[in-house]
Structures are given as C-alpha cells and as structure tokens.
Design a protein that fits this description.
The structure holds two protein chains of two kinds.
Chain A: H1 3-17, E1 23-27, H2 29-38, H3 41-45, E2 49-54, E3 63-72, H4 76-87, E4 91-98, H5 104-113, E5 119-125, E6 130-133, E7 136-138, E8 145-146, E9 149-150, H6 152-168, E10 174-177, H7 182-197, E11 212-217, H8 232-239, E12 242-243, E13 246-248, E14 261-263, H9 270-275, H10 280-302, H11 307-343, H12 346-358, H13 362-374, H14 380-393, H15 402-411, H16 416-429, H17 444-456, H18 468-478, E15 500-506, E16 509-510, H19 511-523, E17 528-533, E18 536-537, H20 539-550
Parallel strand pairs in A: 1-2, 1-3, 3-4, 4-5, 7-17, 10-11, 11-15, 15-17, 16-18
Antiparallel strand pairs in A: 6-7, 8-9, 12-13, 13-14
Chain B: E1 3-5, H1 7-31, H2 36-50, H3 52-62, H4 68-98, H5 106-136, H6 142-187, H7 201-211, H8 217-255, H9 268-322
Helix pairs in contact in B: 4-5, 4-6, 5-6, 5-8, 6-8
Subcellular location (chain B): Golgi apparatus membrane
Keywords (chain B): Coiled coil, Golgi apparatus, Membrane, Plant defense, Protein transport, Transmembrane, Transmembrane helix, Transport
Protein name (chain B): Syntaxin-16 isoform X1
C-alpha cells in the first residue's frame, strides 16, 4: 500500500521494457506531473531516457535514433495528437502506455494511423494519479462541484483516478460512502460500475479481509482546511504553498536566484523525510543539529593541506555539495516561516483558532477575535479565517455576532471578495449540510470525552485540534462506524476488522489529515491506510473551492446579509 | 501493480487496417476503368505516397543521427570494461594483502601496477569522450543540444560514481598496505633509525649511516636490507597516490558538468516548462522583431514622402520665383 512506489514501478517497467538504447519520454500535462513526483531527472537519465517532451509541444524535431516511450492519459485530445504523431513519426519506435482504461475504438483509430508500423507495444499502466506521499494521492482538481452536484469532467477524472489507485495497489474493495452526501453516493456508484465492467482486471487474489474504500465529502469537515498548521509539511503548504512538491520562494525578500523555487520531496531529501511531520519547535532544533553537522564538515573541508586531506575532500565532495544544498534550502524555508510567524502574530491567531474550535467558550472567543481583528499585524486572510471559523462554530448560537465581526472586517479594509466567503462557507458546509457532529456538542459520549480531556490539560495549545477523519477511521477500524451514516454499496458487509483502507475525500484532503493517517499507520499494527482527495488544500485553495461551489447557485439563506 | 496489454489487439487491428487499405487501393482503378492511362499515373503517384519505405527513406536521408551517438556507445563499452577491470583489480589486491609471502613476489605487484594504469587510462579515455560529446553537442538544433546535454550529465554521473568507487578501493588498499608496514616496523625495530619521516629516504639515509658509524656489520646489514624494502614500498605507495591524483583531475573537470541532484533543476516538469517558456519567448521576440521591422518600413516611407514633399515645395517656390 505505497502509492509512490506503485507509480514508480510503473514508470520503471515502461522504461525497462523498451530495452536498451536512447529513449525519449513523451508525456501530456498531467502525466508530466505524475512522473515528476516519483522520478528525479538525474535518476531517470541513468535509465537512458535522455529527452522529455510534451505531446502537445509543437517544437519537437525528428530524431529517428531515439525510441519513444509514451505515457499518456487516454483522453480524446491525446488520442488525436498521437494519431497525428503516428502518421508522421518523429522517432524510431513507439512504446505506448496509457494511464487508464482506453476504449477499443481509440485503439483502432491509432492502429489505422500507424501505416509505418512503428508501434511495438500498447499497454495500460494504471498510474493515473499524483502520488504525493506513500500514503497520500491527489488529482489536483479545484472546482469539483457546483452547488451540490459534481461537475461532470471532475467526476469522470476522479472515478478514473480512484479506480487507477485501486488497480495499481491491486485492491478490489468493498465500498462505503457518506450517506448524507449525494456526491459521495454518485461517486461510489460509478466506481462500483467500473469495477463490475472491468471485472477481469479487478480479479486479484482474495485476501482474508477484503480492503475497504471509504468515500467522504469535505463538507462534513470544513474546519480542518481553515486552520493554521504547525507541522513542517502542512505549515509550508499553508504559508508558502506546495504544488506537486515544488515551492516558490520568489516572494521571500532578498532570496538568491537558485533558491527562487525549491523542491521538497521526501523521496530525494533525507532531512525532509525525517522532519516533514515534526512540529515547528522540533524543526528548529533539528535544523540546528543539521547546521552544526554541516559546519563541522565544512571546517574539515577547509583545511586541505596534505594529500590525505585532498583525498578525503574529493571523496566526500559530492555528499558535501548535496548537504550544502539541503542546508541552505531548509534554512531558507524555515527562516521564511519563522519570519511570517513573527510578523503576522500567527501564534496568537492559531491559539485563538484552536480554542474556538476545540473549547467553544463563546464570549471569550468573541473577545479574542475582536482584539485580533483590531491588530494591524494580522493578515487579512487570518482575520477572515477567524471570522469564518466563528461563523461555523457558533452558527446556531443565540448571541452570535457574525454581522458585527463582518463589519469589523469591512472597517479594516478586507476586500469584498474575501468578506463574501464568510457567508459562502456557511452555505457550503454549514450545520444544515453537515451530518456528523463536528464540534462534539450533540453526542453525550464525545462530550464527556472532551470534558476529561479538558481536565487532563492540553499538551500543545497549537495542535489541540483532531480531524474528523481521524475519528471516523478510528470507528471504522474498531468496527463501530454506523452503517446508517456510512452504508455499503451492494449487499456484502465486512465482518472483521478492516486491514487495508483507502479513504477518498471529495472536495480535497489536507496535510493535517495526511499527518493523522501517517500516525495511524505507524501506531496501529496491521492497519494500512491510504488517503486521497480531489486536491490537497490549504486555506487559499479551499476558498477557491468554496467560491467555485457556491457561484451560480442561489443562496439558500436568503435575507441574510453579511 | 496491475497492467493490461493491448498489443495483440492493436497489431491485429493494424494488420486489418493495412489489408483494407490494399484492397481499397486495388479497387480504385477497377471503378474508374474508362480512363486507363490517367489511372495508371494516379496509381503510381498514390502508390508512392502510401509506400512506407519511401517515407522512411526520405526522412533518413534528411535526418542522420548526430555523430556523437557513436561516441556514446564507445563510452558505454569502456565503462563495462572499467567495471570488469576493477573487479579483477580488487581480487588482485586481496590476494596481495591476504597472502603476504616472504619473497615479496614482484610479479603480483607488477600485475597490480599494470591493471591500475590501464584503468586510469580508461578513465582518461572516458573523460575525453564525454568532453567530445559535450563540445560536439553545442552544434545542431535546440533539441539535439538538449539531448546531448542530458546524455552528458548522465554519463558524467556514471563516470563519477565509478571514479569514487575506484578511489575508495585504492585508498583502502593503500591504508591496508601502510598498516602492514607499521606492523612490520614492530618486527624490525631498526627501521626507527631512519627517523619518523619516510619521505627523505635517500640523502637522509646516508647521513644516518654516516652518523651511526658505531654499528656492527650485522646491524648495518639489517639496516640496508630494510632500506631496500622501504624504498620498494615507497615506490608502490607513490604509484597509487599518483593514480588517485590523476583521477582527481578527471573528477575536477567533470564536477562542473554534474546537475544538482535534489534541486529544482532535477525536476522533469520544471525542465519541460523551461523549454516551453523558452520557445514562447523566442516566438515573442520574433513577433517583436517583425513589428519593429514593419515600423521601420513605415518610417522609411514617411521619410521618403516627406523628402519628396519638401523637394517639390522647393521646386514650386523656385518655379514661382522665376516667374
């Protein structure tokens, strides 16, 4: 159950299968991202793949001495482009790999275009998703829905991607979905249909306990993407934005040219792999040790006097160079993070957020939010964050003062576009839409649990919040997940404790949830969980998502004006 | 990791398509039976264009692979040879170290020396080949340059890994040799007479001998024996150090060519984006240039017209004033 490895194996296999000789890898926009996430260029160069091209690039030249490995999504445009390519082939031989199921009709179209018989191999390799971490995948779709309904291309893409995940992991699961969400139901049905249509593909060796696919809707937990984060990966995404493991540092003041854009990939960066889930304080300490180690090494490097020193230096030079790159990268990133934390009072903001969500003392929260709204150092987006969380948390509270806070936002010059989000988030995922008990106020058990937790005191005020996902997975593993709220597709039911779980979050997952899943994988023996989503959200992309979802839909809450 | 192969289906479909085309092209003349002469010519022309061989022939002529392709193959062959030789060398080293014979077999040392030299030579050759590819790669179209660049960085990496390996094995051999030396020192205490510094064996040695005249003949004899041994070892070590130094030079040369692993430059998508941006920029530059040119032309016309107008005015004035 490692999605990075699965995709990497596909790429390795297609490159190896084409045999010796110089190769060009021909991809489309999406497969470029897919391949880039698992293979570094220097790594794949060692496999004699010397050229990388996009199929829609017009500037390609004829090079008959190259073999062409095509890795493409089976879309209409790609088939058209490939057909043109085969009519006048630019490369010597073609090995075609589609990332998903392709129709026989399309294969025929290609076969008819191939007069010169240059195609050697046509296969389906189901690496049709972006593998972010071993247990996390994404399709990079923003704007998956309008109102309460799927946008059709997004649904098709999601179903294709999810079935590809199942195929690449060799799982034929039982499907459960969130009953309150029409979108989850539709998606579950579609996945079921694909599985029964391609029954021969999904005919894997039966395991004792069948795997479970759980399909959830982001609307049930709109809080997680709105919170500030304090673990390395999540924090970088929230403050600097990670896209396909790449981070743009162009906005950092006084940045050097080679650090304008950096890569944070656990596959190729040991320090990051060890620290991506560490919290901000720990990273500070770890980066200090890294720095010290580096200094020791560089001092050792500086005195090159004897032949012996020279030898030692040259032997260690590549590692040294790599290490110096890693150090400067992480120091820059962490430096920028701590600058932002200091400049924008993020500690205070985050503490208020956490208390707001986890404790819910109305008057205290309101008071704190008001004082933060008055603070000029706090960023607009953080002010908005607080008001949105307040609006969600105290939606039904009798003294709720969302109007007053919205006015305060306006007074502070927060743009109209952002202010509209307060109402939009309640439309998108207010208590009317949610089915689960997000803030733990209805259920007696959770209430007492919370009470005891309060007695024990909290370890870290900035990371009190636990995701709803974690709770659901906990229930699922213990076999307590209610069937009425999360029914099965079809008749079969799981009797035993599930072992392999694939969770898909319609509307996007977050790195906080990825961390929760990572911890569960580590601590619960015998359970392996993979998390996926239409996107990996931070606050900004989540706002885009909400804007998209609520645009063009008449407001249910007419007469409410914030 | 499930996969599904459609190759058989594809080939079946392709064969069917080819057959259909043949049947179709044979049927065409039958339909237009009346114009036999015209049809003959048509069939010839169309036959030429659908003939796959013709197409390939033309493209092959126009597009020969760049000449450095052979160099790449040569390089790869050399690399396999280096690998073999290194294996042999390691086994020789082990033999030499683990079975120290009293007679200090010169043959073995000689073999090691030769092997080391050959490997170093091969490394040099490989480096030369890479540089050839590198310099030849600057010619040709943009994509060929890109290809050459990628190949060079990949070959350099292979070469670098190998040199590092080789150097490690050499220095570990050296270390073992030296430690054996130290051990032997314990047995032949007199070696201490040569002083802590080994490097000045020659002249210092004589001085020492002069100084220590009071030794018995037996002692002198043993010192002389040891001197010979030490000198021989010294030569051996110097040889290995030299081979390491040679490699260092190669290393320095190629270090500049290595791409930075783990940085953004090592991302496939980044590099693709970069080239497409470059192409876009090129297009923009061209458009700009075109615009400038057009503007220039307009300017020229305006100037010419203005000059004509002024000339005519002067002529007019001249003509009027003459009246």
């Amino acid at each position: 159950m490692n999605v990075v490895l699965a995709v990497k194996q596909y790429v390795t296999k297609m490159v190896d299968d084409s045999g010796q000789g110089m190769k060009v890898l021909l991809m489309d926009k999406e497969t470029t991202s897919i391949v880039s996430m698992v293979y570094a260029q220097s790594e794949i160069l060692q496999k004699e793949v010397y050229l990388f091209e996009r199929i829609d690039s017009s500037a390609r030249e004829t090079m008959k001495h190259l073999k062409c490995v095509c890795f493409l999504r089976p879309t209409k445009e790609n088939v058209d482009l490939l057909q043109q390519e085969l009519r006048s082939p630019k490369y010597g031989l073609y090995f075609i790999y589609f990332s998903n199921v392709i129709s026989r009709q399309d294969v025929k179209v290609l076969a008819e275009a191939d007069d010169q018989e240059v195609v050697r191999e046509v296969q389906e390799f189901y690496g049709d998703y972006v593998a972010v971490s071993p247990h996390l995948f994404s399709f990079n779709i923003v704007g998956h829905c309008q109102g309460n309904n799927w946008v059709t291309p997004a649904l098709t893409r999601s179903v294709q991607g999810l079935t590809a995940v199942l195929l690449s992991l060799k799982k034929c699961p039982m499907i459960r979905f969130q009953n309150s969400s029409e979108m989850a139901r539709r998606m579950a049905d579609n996945v079921r249909q694909v599985i029964s249509k391609e029954a021969s593909l999904f005919d894997f060796r039966r395991t004792d306990v069948p795997p479970v696919l759980l399909i959830l809707d982001r609307r049930d937990d709109p809080v997680t993407p709105l919170l500030n984060q304090w673990t390395y990966q999540a924090m970088v995404h929230e403050l600097l934005e990670i896209s396909n493991n790449r981070i743009s540092l162009a906005s950092v003041p006084g940045i050097s040219k080679e650090l304008k854009e950096v890569v944070l990939s656990a596959e190729h960066d040991e320090f990051y792999a060890n620290n991506m889930y560490a919290n901000f304080g720990e990273i500070g300490v770890n980066i200090k040790t890294l720095m010290e180690e580096f200094q020791k090494k560089s001092q050792g490097q500086s005195k090159v006097e004897s032949i012996q020193d020279m030898k030692a230096f040259l032997e260690n030079y590549p590692q040294f160079k790599k290490m110096s790159g890693t150090v400067s990268k992480h120091v820059t990133v962490v430096g920028e993070l701590s600058r932002l934390v200091g400049a924008h009072n993020l500690l205070e903001v985050s503490e208020t957020e956490q208390e707001l969500v986890c404790q819910g003392d109305h008057s205290l929260a309101l008071q704190k939010i008001r004082s933060l709204l008055a603070n000029d150092n706090v960023r607009d987006i953080d002010k908005l964050r607080l008001v949105m969380l307040y609006a969600l948390r105290f939606e039904k509270h009798s003294n709720n003062d969302v109007t007053g806070l919205a006015d305060a936002l306006a007074k502070k010059g927060v743009s109209e576009k952002l202010r509209r989000m307060v109402g939009a988030v309640v439309d998108y995922a207010g208590s009317r839409v949610r089915s689960s008990d997000l803030f733990g106020s209805k259920d007696a058990i959770t209430f007492t649990k919370k009470f005891f937790k309060g007695l024990k005191g909290v370890e870290n005020v900035y990371t009190q919040h636990n995701t709803l996902l974690q709770e659901l997975l906990d229930q699922l593993i213990k076999g307590r997940l209610k069937e009425a709220s999360y029914p099965y597709v079809g008749q079969a039911q799981l009797r035993d404790r599930p072992q392999d779980i694939i969770v898909f979050m319609i509307g996007g997952a977050t790195y906080e949830e990825a961390l929760a899943v990572h911890n569960m994988n580590k601590t619960i023996p015998g359970v392996r969980i993979v998390l996926g989503g239409t996107h990996i959200h931070n606050m900004k992309s989540f706002l885009d998502e909400i804007t998209h979802a609520t645009s063009g839909v008449s407001r249910h809450t007419s007469g409410r004006r914030w | 990791m499930a996969t599904r192969s459609l190759t058989e289906v594809y080939i079946l479909m392709r064969n069917n398509a080819l057959q259909n085309r043949h049947i179709f092209s044979e049927q065409v003349p039958l339909i237009k039976d009346a114009h036999v002469v015209a049809d003959d010519r048509m069939a010839l022309v169309s036959g030429l264009s659908t003939d796959p061989e013709a197409g390939i022939g033309v493209t092959k002529l126009s597009r020969l692979p760049p000449e450095w392709v052979d160099t790449v193959e040569e390089f790869q062959f050399d690399i396999t040879r280096i690998k073999e030789k290194m294996k042999e060398l390691v086994s020789l080293h082990n033999k030499h170290l683990n079975r120290p014979t009293l007679d200090d077999s010169i043959d073995e040392e000689h073999a090691i020396e030769i092997q080391t030299q050959e490997i170093t030579k091969l490394f040099h050759r490989c480096q030369r080949l890479v540089q050839q590819i590198n310099s030849k790669g600057h010619y040709g179209s943009a994509q060929e340059q890109k290809l050459a660049q990628n190949i060079v960085s990949s070959l350099v990496r292979t070469l670098q890994d190998l040199t590092v390996n080789f150097r490690k094995s050499q220095s570990s051999y050296l270390k073992k040799l030296q430690s054996r030396e130290e051990r032997s020192k314990h047995y032949f205490e007199t070696v201490n007479l040569l002083g802590p510094d080994f490097s000045g064996v020659g002249p210092e040695n004589e001085e020492d001998l002069l100084y220590d005249r009071g030794f018995t003949d037996v002692q002198l004899q043993s010192v002389e024996d040891n001197t010979v041994v030490v000198q021989q070892r010294e030569r051996e070590i110097a040889q290995i150090v030299r081979s390491i130094q040679d490699l260092n030079e190669i290393f320095k040369d190629i270090a500049t060519l290595v791409t930075d692993q783990g940085t953004i430059l090592d991302r496939i998508d980044y590099n693709i984006e970069k080239t497409s941006v470059q192409v876009d920029e090129g297009l923009k530059q061209l458009q700009k240039a075109e615009k400038y040119q057009k503007k220039n032309r307009k300017m020229l016309v305006i100037v010419v017209l203005a000059v004509i107008v002024i000339l005519l005015l002067i002529i007019l004035i001249a003509v009027k004033s003459h009246h």
